[in-house]
Amino acid sequence: MHCFAPDCNHQSESHCCQFFLFPNPVKKKEENRRWVRLLRRDDRDPNKYSKVCSCHFKDGKKSNDPTIFERNANKLFPSQEPPVQKKKKPDSEAKLPAVKDILASISATTPAESSETQDESTTPPTEQIIFEAELHLAKLELSSQQDTIQYQKTHYSVSMMTSEVIRMEAGLPTKEIFTIVVDYAAKYRDSISYYCGWKVESITFEDQIFITLMKLRQNYTNTHLAQLFSCSVGTI
Ligand SMILES: [Zn+2]
Ligand SMILES: [Zn+2]
């Protein structure tokens, strides 16, 4: 009996390693497919007699899936990767845990696939993945900052106002007290029902509160408020 792995000449007659039968293609379909994928034998498919020798299994255990092959003998495995370079700026240091979290969540959601790909060494090195994740995070941060700036540019927003303006418009003594009111209102946010079941997303929550206070205090018309906050009269 020959080992089914490519580049392996081990035979059950002359080698003392164990020989594992392919997982049943019907009863253990997933496992069977995984083996086929990992073995990358393009010339033929395994039949019900095909076996793989234990030399391709970590610790020689069948449950570990065949991951050790001649073709990746010289490749780096995740456990042997060099330490991450220290060329990073201090502020990216703070982001690092988040990157790790992302990586952890990725591997948590697809445990089988990620361990497989790492073992096969076909994916880019871990460092590159970390770099890409960081880049993605930076982009997200940038775009959320841009959104905020854009919002502040196009809307009359309470986040740009001083205490004096808030006092005049809403009748609250300081901005801090307004913040407390917003925090308090936020607790009941889910129970707020908008007119006709609308979802109000074009205006931030604190501005919604502020508009409400302004209306109560100043009795502004809806048209006036809509113009101030660059939104439709219907939204108000
Ligand atoms: Zn073998
Ligand atoms: Zn062997």
From TrEMBL:
It holds the Pfam family HTH_Tnp_4. SMART domains: THAP (SM00980). This is THAP-type domain-containing protein. The keyword Phosphoprotein does not apply. Residues 1-85 form the THAP-type domain. The keyword Zinc applies. One of its GO terms (molecular function) is DNA binding. Keywords: DNA-binding, Metal-binding, Zinc, Zinc-finger. It comes from the Eukaryota.
